[in-house]
Structure formats: C-alpha cells, structure tokens
Design brief:
By secondary structure, this protein is of the alpha+beta class. It has 1 helix and 13 strands; from the N terminus they run E-E-H-E-E-E-E-E-E-E-E-E-E-E.
C-alpha cells in the first residue's frame, strides 16, 4: 500500500511487481522453446533415418596430360595480377614436334585453326556444372570445330619445329587455371601412425 499523491488522506492500492513475478512469466516461454527444440530435433532425426541412401555423387573426372603422360614443364603457370598484364596463363611443356597431342578430357572442339600464324585448338569441357576450355598451341589440328572428342583422343600434332607445347585451362573470359592441377585427384588424408591406407 502507498499514500496517494493527489489526496493526502487517501490510500491508493499500488501493485508493485517483484523480480519473482517477471521470472514466472518467462518460465512458460522457456518451456515452450524447449518443447519446440525437442520436437524439431525429433523430426530432423526421423527425416535422416527415413531418407533412403542415395547414389554417391560422381567425382570430377581427372584430366590427362595432352602428351599422354607427364613430361618436363619448361615454364609453369604464372597468371598476372591483373588480366591486362603479361603472364603465363598456362604451362609450357617440353614436347617437340611432330609429337601427337591428345584431348585432356571429353568435350567439344570450339577452335581448330591458325591464329596469328600458330595452330590453336580449344575444347569446351562441362565439369560439375561449370565450363572450362582447354587450349593447345602450336598444334596442327586433326579435328574440326564442333567435333565431339573423348579423353585421350588424338586432336593434332605439335607443329613445325617447335620444341614445346603450350597447354592452358580457361575458366572464364579473363580467368585461367593451372591445367596440371586438373590432372590431380582429390587429396587423401593418410593416418599418422604409419598404418596402411585403405
């Protein structure tokens, strides 16, 4: 009870809220949240259990070297800091003319002609929903634009008296990737204790 501020002789009934009253109203909310959490966890567990095992997603097909097997790299991949600067947007392989050149992966030939006096082949590959173009030069093509090639198909020979083959992997209009990285499989972690890997 408290004294009225408007009439000195009158007593007003004022309800004073205590900390305990606030706690009692929060407890039902916590209970509801806890119950909803338990229900959500139970439904999630049921969905996981009830879901039939799916077919494993196939791993990205590894590229092969255009030489058929690894050869010495004369100049490695060294992309420029900006697309307008000079740099090596592929690798230069020690692979003299007239050595055969093979498709590094399945795809469709998009370029098979002479550009700036050098034979060039470019193949479009669709890999896991993205497009990558492999490029080869200088090459005398044995394929034509629009041809479908499979990994390992002969696509031409190193032309003229060139001692090297340039091999590139273009991922967009101005971006390139190291083609040698595409020949590597997924990394595997091995046990520390020296036990044989499975």
């Amino acid at each position: 009870m408290a004294v009225s501020t408007t009439n000195p002789g009158r007593l007003d009934r004022i309800t004073i809220s205590t900390h305990a009253d606030g706690m009692s109203s929060a407890i039902p909310q916590r209970s509801r949240f806890g119950a909803l959490s338990i229900i959500a966890a139970f439904v999630g567990a049921l969905l996981i259990i009830a879901t039939p095992p799916g077919v494993a997603t196939p791993h990205r097909e590894r590229w092969q070297w255009p030489t058929g097997e690894p050869v010495p790299v004369v100049e490695g991949f060294a992309p420029p800091a900006h697309d307008w600067l000079p740099g090596r947007r592929g690798v230069t392989l020690q692979y003299p003319a007239p050595s055969p050149v093979y498709a590094c992966a399945s795809g469709t030939v998009t370029v098979a002609s002479s550009i700036a006096g050098r034979g060039v082949i470019s193949i479009r590959h669709d890999i896991d929903g993205r497009v990558i173009w492999s490029t080869y030069l200088p090459v005398t093509p044995s394929v034509a634009v629009g041809d479908r090639v499979e990994k390992g198909d002969l696509i031409g020979i190193v032309e003229g008296d060139s001692p090297t083959l340039h091999w590139g992997a273009k991922t967009s209009r101005r971006e390139y990737s190291d083609p040698i990285r595409l020949t590597l499989g997924r990394p595997r972690l091995l046990p520390w204790d020296g036990a044989p890997a499975r």
